[in-house]
Design goal:
Two copies of one chain form a homodimer. Helix content of chain A is 46%, strand content 16%. In chain A, 49% of the residues are buried. Chain A is of the alpha/beta class and 283 residues long. In chain A, helix 2 (46-63) runs parallel beside helix 3 (76-83). The radius of gyration of chain A is 24 Å and the shape is elongated. In chain A, the strands form two sheets. In chain A, strands 2-1-3-4 form a four-stranded parallel β-sheet, with helices on both faces. Chain A has a four-stranded parallel β-sheet with strand order 6-5-7-8, with helices on both faces. Chain A folds into two domains: 5-104, Rossmann fold, CATH 3.40.50; 117-267, Rossmann fold. Mean pLDDT of chain A is 87; it is low at 113-118 and 273-283. Strand 9 (280-282) of chain A pairs parallel with strand 2 (34-40) of chain B.
Chain lengths: 283, 283
Amino acid sequence: MQSNSRQVFFLSNGTAITAETLGMSLLAQFPDHSFQTQTIPFVDSAEKANAVTDDINRCIEESGQLPIVICTMGDEDLINIIKHSKALVIDPFGDILPRLEKALAAQHHQPFESHRTVNPSLYESRIDAIDYAMLHDDGGKMQNYDEADIILVGVSRSGKTPSCLYLALQFGIKAANYPITEEDMESENLPAIIRGFKGKLFGLTTNPKRLAHIREERRSNSRYASLDQCKYEVKAAEQMFEQFNVPYLNTTTMSIEEIATKVVELTGLHRVSKPAISHLDMK
Amino acid sequence: MQSNSRQVFFLSNGTAITAETLGMSLLAQFPDHSFQTQTIPFVDSAEKANAVTDDINRCIEESGQLPIVICTMGDEDLINIIKHSKALVIDPFGDILPRLEKALAAQHHQPFESHRTVNPSLYESRIDAIDYAMLHDDGGKMQNYDEADIILVGVSRSGKTPSCLYLALQFGIKAANYPITEEDMESENLPAIIRGFKGKLFGLTTNPKRLAHIREERRSNSRYASLDQCKYEVKAAEQMFEQFNVPYLNTTTMSIEEIATKVVELTGLHRVSKPAISHLDMK
């Protein structure tokens, strides 16, 4: 452990995905600091909460520094055990739930039911979207684009595959992708396979230098990875997008999450199942 | 819109994934209430913040109810605009950042840099994990299991593919999966392809009734989807796991997130890149 690295724990009686997501966003606000993070899911009994509290306290003795604990527990008895540690315990639920209770004129429950048991059909629509993305990756074994919500197009390594998977996993969107080939670039028309689906096409493009770097790691010293080839392909793809009015996005500086969110925003696609909680109507 | 459905907005100047994740966890605490949620990412200018504020206020007039706004803004000027709406505005950053500043004896910045630009190599390890999962899905085109961090095994439709993709996308873990075939079930040994990788195997199993239901939606009235067949396969797979000491998990009531998190917990796998923020040392 680095001496000036602050220890951070993300805790929950569930998956701890909420604690981790919120926690990482908070820590990103302190870019000059170094953090050593640890996510501890399923802290769902007094025994486990006591064991974690001991770990946290031991960590104070070892490092001489106050650890930060970000804890999204639905169970008040468990959070109270953690709060007895000597760390800085941040409990966003404890801060926010009373205000929601007041606004809704209701007490909160502690359901912690699995998403899947609560609403199998919503869950399955997300699984269907994943199946769809897997079958329609990279030009796909099948070309059942009628069912696609969106078809991402772009040159090899422009970010199509991870973006499609994220759209499916997080947003339940059926996303296919089609790689633009050199043959396509030399043609005067949109590739035949996607020509009939113009309204669903969305282009991804990237900086040729960045593309060459990514390709170089896959096929070192190849024509495929050469800067000239990348420049040629990116230019040809962008010309295609312009010529046929395909909306497109330059992904050079974007993360997968940003690409997927931007695509949803720009196309007005409907997120069908991100919440995976039955009683919520998603818009 | 349902008349008794409460309007909820998740806002951010970034992707709004943090606001949405935290918000959905909070709303899940009120299972008897109905919510209509809307996620608005990239609220990154005063113009956009004013437009959103107008939308929120209009929504009060239409529904006669107080909307709930959960807003993770790094920019104080923007959050102040939103706070001028008439809604209940929840600002977790505003509540928590001052406490972190005190603990770290530092002011927070507002970086909002893309993960990708901050640390390309961490980002690429996540992309590599996705590539790996795609190539090694369903027995895979390639069988380069040397590189695998984990190999999920189970009968068809036991949840292997979405779990592998989630492990790759969220945790940067290289997860392959191998479907147990009927031929494998009749053998006295572990399938030859995975036999040499016993330490990396992890089994997924599920309730035969649930499995039959899932398969029925894919291949209606088939032997594949029959309850008898599902019972036979699940029993054979579980016997295989027991016989060869392959740790396994019953996924019947679990979401993808829960399966992936449980697998990481039970195997002690190292999450390499979920944070995607350069200065964080992940444990």
